[in-house]
Amino acid sequence: MTLFEELKRRGLIAQMSHEREIEELLNSGSVKFYIGFDATADSLHIGHFMQMLTIRRFQQAGHYPVALLGTATALIGDPTGKTDIRKMLTIEEINANADAFEAQMSKYFDASAGKGEFVRNIDWFKDFKYLDFLRDVGKHFSVNKMLTAECFKSRMEKGLSFLEFNYMLLQSYDFLHLYREKAVNLQLGGDDQWSNILSGADLVRRVEQGEAFAMTFALLSTKEGKKMGKTEKGALWLDPNKCSTYDFYQNLRNSEDADVVKKLKMMTFIPIDEIEEMERTLSGAGLNKAKELLAYEVTKLVHGEEEAEKVKNAAKNVFGGSGESADMPTTTLSGEDLTGSEINILDLLVKTALCSSRRDARTNVEQGGVSINDGKITDPNNMIEIKESIIIKKGKKTFHKVKVI
What we know:
This protein is about 45% helix and about 15% strand. It has 19 helices and 13 strands. It has a 6-stranded mixed beta sheet, with helices on both faces. Strands 7-13-12-9-10 form a 5-stranded mixed beta sheet. The model is unreliable at about 230-235 (pLDDT under 50).
């Protein structure tokens, strides 16, 4: 089975600029391709993970990846999918983020000489003169056409800054630069980037009369249909300091029934034949096993096999065994957090980050969604005694241990 066929069967491909040519290109041998990652946070999230799996799939098939860290484009801000302008970051913050990205991404593909590489677009934009950029690049873009792009449409009512309006030109120039300097002729990315990626391929064809292709992949969405990203509800960070390995595992374990097979196809390297066979017979108890398999396989890819085993066993203990595990999410309180040996239930929920505020905590308590050691708490004035440790249950699937020093 070719790479192109597998991508199709896994439901990964969203759009392509030239389907027949891209299929031939992928099947013909080594292709130089790139994917861009703007360094706007100090950790990658699950959306980035999907793109890194793409890099690994392509590299395993013999193709050469260039991972572009957007240290220049992050200064501008991509308006795609946003309702307001991004927070402006300093170059120092962006470089620190890029270092964190590179360290995380290095686990997923080989960037050694001759196998793949990282690049940062500040290297070619830092000395670019604005007038030269307008004359050499800007002349190839139609404002009327740009305004029809989805990445701009969603911002027109709220207001699109001129700063952000330049983003498409910068990303397009990335493709032109990599085509000239590294013979890259294929750009990949999430489907929300289709307009930007297609514009880059068009720029290469206009300026260099070269063969340049665009290809996007289906986005991983929450059950509400929103993209899983670092600012959306339900985000999953890859850094265990921002999202514990246990919470990461449990989020995937709690996937909707209808999404399990789709996620197994898109997010794992389980042979597609096995997943399709599973799909034909999946029901009842098999769904729970499929969810456990999904959570384990993705957690193993992100955090390693040892950590995946720990959280799998922790989840089994919590949900089907003793109700407690050494590897479950834990908050440690000191005597300063308590009045004597007690703490108000609302303060406790906020300190454990199970609720975002006292108001959020009050709502959960009053609606009967909180239990302490299997005892339901419905009074927001309740004081919780903690001598050594307790187990908080929020909803049906969230368990958290609290210890006192």
